[in-house]
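Example record for the data management plan.
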Amino acid sequence: MIEKTLIYDGSFEGFLSCVFYVFEYKLQNVSIQSEFVVQNGLFSENEKITTDKEKSDRVWKRLKEKTSSIASTKIYYAFLSEQIGVENILLDHLQYIFKNKQKVDTDFTHASILKTSQIAKIVSREKHRMEAFVRFKLTKDKIYFANIEPDFNVLPLISKHFRSRYADQKWVIYDTKRAYALFYDLKKVAIVNMDFPTNFNFTKTDDHFFAAEEFEFQKLWKDYFNSTNIKERKNMKLHVKHVPKRYWKYLSEKQPNF
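Corresponding structural encoding:
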């Protein structure tokens, strides 16, 4: 039997539109893939599915009727992992939920429900790390700028945290891996695309772009960090466990002196 592959635009609404299509046409041998990671199968028939917000909303509404808020949140978190094949795990998950009259969102004996929960857990861990490790720098136009490079697409998940915590200042958090940002203008948070000069170094504080007082602040922060770091009690293994080295290049306290 030829497998049908549904191609979507990479958005969560696009994925849910594919789910709607699967149920609408009662498809059996089907897979879902983002247009950014399409892997053509030898015996696969591809079809592009247009994102339809009305249909995606219907799937999401039905899901929330059939599950707890925690369970539906896990599905969204798992989707943001961007792991290859996660769409098919989630499709199987949703099919299992929708075909059962009873709530089965905590039935971890079912492979896709267990896998969704496991993926959501590591995405949640990354979300909390990003909330802790973001370091803002003041630009010359008085906007606080931070860049991150998370393993998973967690920008949508950290928006609420930073809007609440830094409600009185304009800020931008840019994901260097996915090339988009959150921008807060004192009223709302928007998703924006940004252009940077060629060879722009996100690990440096360039005086062409950042305010003079930012350099003074970073020096004060480094001095404080160094003064509280007691060498005799230094436990590098524990430190790396809580602050993995892959985050260090964007932490101001880890950068060399100017």
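Summary line stored alongside the record: The beta strands are 3-8, 30-34, 44-48, 137-138, 144-148, 171-175, 180-184, 189-192.
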